[in-house]
């Protein structure tokens, strides 16, 4: 059973005079500026890649990242203005309309965008996982068309899940100070409690899947690096330009991985408090705390604000500067050269032409330093 304070929060009609919209306005502005800036950076990189004949694989990664940024921006634009309007009218979300439709819309939007952004991040992590761990399958079967199909499917599944409370499975309720609505995390009805736990379980599974994919990518990149060290001495000088391109390719993979890892960390920090609150409310029904629930909701809402800034900070230009600073390379050096020299430092001076693994005809990794055997050349 919820305490009277929590019931008051569910049906509150007016916002307390001591509550101000300042923090919400700052979060709204930061979310808009960050997401728009991230989209501009993505468009500049897309145009640059088009002029330079950028590869299909990089474009596929950027399609998924762009969809993630657009989703964050859309969520900010559809949710945050309602908070400001509520403060302006001095009415809670449930009081803005007699049918409580605004509160239900707010709760649906919060649930949808939290699920959709997490699912899109999993899709992006899975794309990197296939590209690094199963390159032959990736090159044969994974195309831009897969992204154009996967993204709408993700949105459709998330929408269907969020519409279940309108069919009686789950409920959206208001949280203090009256400017938040979300899934009822401690309902009295069993069916609503099942829905809340289902949401928390889905979010937890998405987090675990993303962490597993990123861990797999880290392991594969480490194996590629070890393979380079073992085969570093047998370099053919005529392959200099080819090896330079391969080193640049691996540097790009590391850049993608760094971005995904940091975004995953942010998602975990912002998501797990809400998941824990749902499970705690489910196990101990008499200790509901709207104050702690509100903190968890604020964590998950901050995610869409932090994400674009993480992308901006970890953009290639910043990473290139970091590579050159760490490796003490000249400012004008390319990222492939910086990455290659940082790897070569681990080996003898002869290992100046380290290269990323490429695929042979059997879809197996082969480095530029290793001459193919007769068995490798057989179909």
Give a concise summary.
GO terms for molecular function: prostaglandin E receptor activity. It is a multi-pass membrane protein. The chain is mostly helical.
Could you describe the 3D structure shown?
The protein is mostly helical. It has one domain: Rhopdopsin 7-helix transmembrane proteins (Up-down Bundle), CATH 1.20.1070. Helices cover 70% and strands 3% of the residues. It is built from 12 helices and 4 strands; from the N terminus they run H-H-H-H-H-H-E-E-H-H-H-H-H-E-E-H. The strands form 2 sheets. The chain has a two-stranded antiparallel ribbon. The chain has a two-stranded antiparallel ribbon with strand order 3-4. Helix 7 runs antiparallel to helix 8. It is globular, with a radius of gyration of 25 Å. The termini are far apart. It comes from Sparus aurata (Gilthead sea bream). Its main location: membrane. Keywords: Cell membrane, Disulfide bond, G-protein coupled receptor, Glycoprotein, Membrane, Receptor, Transducer, Transmembrane, Transmembrane helix. Belongs to the G-protein coupled receptor 1 family.
């Amino acid at each position: 059973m919820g305490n009277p304070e929590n019931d008051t929060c569910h049906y509150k009609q007016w916002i307390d005079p001591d509550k101000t919209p300042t923090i919400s306005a700052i979060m709204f502005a930061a979310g808009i500026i960050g997401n728009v800036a991230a989209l501009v950076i993505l468009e500049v990189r897309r145009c640059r890649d088009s002029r330079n004949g950028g590869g299909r694989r990089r474009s596929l990664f950027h399609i998924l990242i762009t969809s993630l940024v657009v989703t964050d921006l859309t969520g900010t634009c559809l949710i945050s203005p309602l908070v400001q309007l509520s403060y302006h009218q001095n009415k809670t979300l449930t009081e803005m309309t007699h049918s409580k439709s605004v509160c239900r819309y707010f709760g649906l939007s919060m649930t949808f965008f939290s699920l959709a952004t997490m699912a899109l991040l999993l899709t992006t992590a899975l794309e990197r996982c296939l590209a690094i761990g199963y390159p032959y399958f990736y090159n044969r079967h994974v195309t831009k068309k897969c992204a154009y199909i996967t993204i709408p499917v993700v949105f459709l599944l998330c929408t269907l899940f969020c519409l279940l409370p309108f069919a009686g499975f789950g409920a959206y309720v208001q949280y203090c100070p009256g400017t938040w609505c979300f899934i009822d995390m401690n309902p009295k009805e069993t069916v609503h409690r099942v829905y809340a736990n289902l949401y928390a379980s889905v979010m937890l599974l998405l987090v675990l899947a993303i962490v597993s994919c990123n861990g797999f990518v880290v392991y594969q990149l480490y194996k590629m690096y070890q393979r380079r060290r073992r085969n570093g001495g047998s370099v053919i000088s005529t392959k200099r330009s080819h090896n330079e391109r391969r080193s640049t390719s691996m540097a790009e993979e590391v850049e993608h991985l760094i971005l995904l890892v940091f975004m995953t960390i942010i998602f975990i920090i912002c998501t797990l408090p809400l998941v824990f609150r749902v499970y705690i409310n489910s196990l101990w029904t008499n200790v509901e705390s709207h104050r702690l629930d509100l903190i968890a909701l604020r964590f998950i809402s901050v995610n869409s604000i932090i994400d674009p800034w993480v992308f901006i900070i970890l953009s290639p230009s910043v990473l290139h500067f970091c590579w050159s600073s760490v490796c003490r390379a000249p400012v004008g050096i390319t990222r492939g050269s910086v990455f290659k020299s940082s790897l070569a430092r681990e080996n003898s001076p002869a290992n100046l032409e380290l290269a990323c693994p490429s695929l042979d005809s059997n879809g197996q990794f082969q480095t530029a330093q290793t001459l193919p055997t007769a068995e490798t050349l057989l179909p």
